[in-house]
Design goal:
The complex is a heterodimer. By secondary structure, chain A is an alpha/beta fold. Chain A has a single domain, classed as Rossmann fold (3-Layer(aba) Sandwich). In chain A, helix 7 links the parallel strand 7 and strand 8. The two termini of chain A are 34 Å apart. By secondary structure, chain B is mostly helical. Chain B contains eleven helices and four strands; from the N terminus they run H-H-H-H-E-E-E-H-H-H-H-E-H-H-H. In chain B, a hairpin with a 2-residue loop joins strand 2 and strand 3. In chain B, helix 5 crosses helix 6 and helix 5 packs antiparallel against helix 8. The chains are: A alpha/beta, B mainly alpha. At the A-B interface, helix 2 and helix 3 of A face helix 6 and helix 7 of B.
């Protein structure tokens, strides 16, 4: 569904991504793991169209979206849950969700999709009129996920969705990711929590300083001694 | 001071305040989205007044179409300024766009002097607005009722757009987080253009009413009202539309009442606004209704 080929990204003078290639098949969960600064977020940001200086190819359903704008990419069916949730704190929960559906033209279905998001995250329904900024960290993460779902994406990219959450909530987030995937959405997941990510993903890539150093199914990587030592604490 | 006099001053203040408010809203909207003080804003105000002047005098248009055309043309001019002078600098440091706006302001003023000559020209008021209305001892110019009413309606319309429509939602989102708003599929440049268009339309409306109130137009007429409205926006809390309204009205009242109650100080009327600016910046830089500066987590 999505294939990234020989992607290079530059930030100012820094060569952040040095020719990585990844493959995200339809209906699967694929994860990118690696240390801070390995280039995981940059990869997602490049796919979403937020990074200007880049080379290579990003094929989504046979279309090269490398130089497309974020507006175009959302409409093509790729949504992103950005790092740090980035909900709109001064807007209500409902307005946040409406913004998620901004690119859509089928106004009639937006209401029912909002109901669906509220079923997925009942706590958001209770707080529909509250400002996003008044929600707890976990609720904000739910809102960020719900907001991304409102664009009816086929591929949903998540940048560190469990970051900063209490262990119980982390488990809930991963259950939700599995549930979203169960609805037929393809997921590209970037995570610090390597163990949980590898458990849930069908395929995974390990990034180090801008390159893919290892890849395999989630199980293979959990069993790999190099991964165990570097990312799973021995 | 007699009550009748006070009522007259009250309406004069309300009128001046409304005119400041309309301009201030444009400053505050652009600042809210781009963190840019658009110093060319006062010159759009001037263009609006000139467009109506030419529409009614040179093309002999009736007032209503002349006003609507002038507002539309000024709105377009505002969008053009953004497109030419600010959009190429979106990724540049903020100070670059600010300097660019000062350049645009000088450019429009000097272009106006070349095209329209620097001579002030008298504006013919429509008949319906001439004369004086008498209520007992109170004598009121019709304009001092019309200007606040029109301003009020325009502001209500703007608030409706910002708070109830989809582009308005996008505007509010952009003012907090441009990048994430783009991820929602919003064409940020279009929304910014809309912001300039709306702000410029309000400035033009203000300029037109200003030209009727002090019945003349000249190429530098936007300069002082522009600065004053900027002060009003800072006073109210720059970035807040409600703040700009309140700040504009407050400044209008302060200026009129100083002259009314302390005629000896009337020569310092203009200076007072700038003293006020310095005081706000020292004491409460976020203004009366400005948001607290949030710490980024």
């Amino acid at each position: 569904m999505l294939s990234v080929e020989e992607l290079h990204v530059h930030y100012g003078g820094i060569h952040a991504i040095k020719g990585i290639s990844i493959e995200v098949p339809q209906g699967k969960i694929v994860t990118l793991i690696g240390a801070n600064g390995a280039g995981k977020s940059s990869t997602l940001r490049a796919i979403a169209g937020l990074v200007r200086q880049k080379k290579g190819r990003i094929l989504y359903k046979e279309e090269d979206i490398l130089h497309r704008s974020p507006e175009h990419i959302v409409r093509a069916g790729i949504a992103m849950v950005p790092e740090g949730r980035r909900i709109f704190p001064q807007l209500s929960v409902e307005e946040n969700l409406k913004l998620g559906a901004y690119a859509r033209t089928d106004a009639a279905n937006i209401r029912s999709d909002m109901d669906w998001v509220f079923e997925l995250f009942p706590r958001l329904r209770e707080r529909a009129w509250q400002k996003g900024g008044t929600l707890s960290g976990g609720e904000q993460q739910m809102l960020a996920l719900g907001r991304a779902l409102m664009s009816r994406p086929e591929l949903i990219m998540m940048d560190e969705p469990s970051l900063g959450l209490a262990p119980l909530l982390v488990r809930e987030v991963f259950e939700i990711i599995a549930a979203i995937n169960g609805e037929g959405k393809t997921v590209l997941l970037v995570e610090q929590n390597a163990y949980a990510a590898l458990k849930i993903a069908q395929y995974a890539y390990v990034l180090e300083v801008g390159s893919v150093v290892l890849e395999g199914t989630g199980e293979q990587l959990i069993a790999d001694p190099r991964v165990r030592e570097a990312y799973l604490g021995g | 001071m007699s009550l009748a006099m006070f009522v007259q001053h009250f309406f004069n203040a309300l009128t001046l305040g409304s005119l400041y408010s309309l301009i201030a809203i444009g400053y505050t909207m652009v600042y809210g989205i781009l963190r840019l003080i658009n110093f060319a804003h006062g010159d759009i105000f001037m263009l609006g007044a000139y467009f109506v002047f030419f529409g009614t005098i040179a093309f002999k248009l009736p007032w209503l179409p002349a006003v609507l055309l002038a507002v539309a043309a000024s709105s377009f001019a505002g969008i053009l300024v953004d497109r030419i002078a600010y959009r190429p600098l979106r990724d540049a440091p903020r100070i670059s766009a600010l300097i660019s706006s000062i350049g645009v302001s000088f450019f429009i003023q000097n272009l106006a002097i070349v095209l329209f000559t620097g001579i002030p020209r008298p504006v013919q008021q429509p008949k319906i607005l001439t004369g004086i209305m008498q209520f007992g001892a109170v004598r009121i110019l019709p304009l001092t009722l019309v200007v606040p009413t029109i301003s009020f309606v325009l502001v209500l319309g703007l608030l409706w757009i910002v708070n109830k429509t989809k582009p308005g939602l996008a505007m509010r989102a952009i003012s907090k987080d441009i990048e994430t708003t783009r991820l929602m599929g919003v064409s940020v440049d279009k929304i910014i253009a809309l912001t300039f268009g709306l702000g410029s339309a309000l400035a033009a409306a203000s300029g037109i009413m200003w030209a009727l109130r002090y019945p003349q137009v000249h190429p530098l007429m936007g300069s002082f009202p522009g600065f004053k409205a900027f002060i009003a926006a800072v006073l109210g809390g720059i970035g807040s539309i409600q703040g700009a309204m309140v700040g504009g009205l407050l400044l209008g009242f302060i200026e009129i009442m100083i002259v009314a109650f302390l005629p000896a100080l009337s020569g310092y009327k203009d200076a007072f606004a700038f003293v006020l600016l310095i005081i706000i910046l020292l004491v409460k830089p976020t203004g009366l209704m400005g948001e607290k500066l949030e710490e980024k987590v």
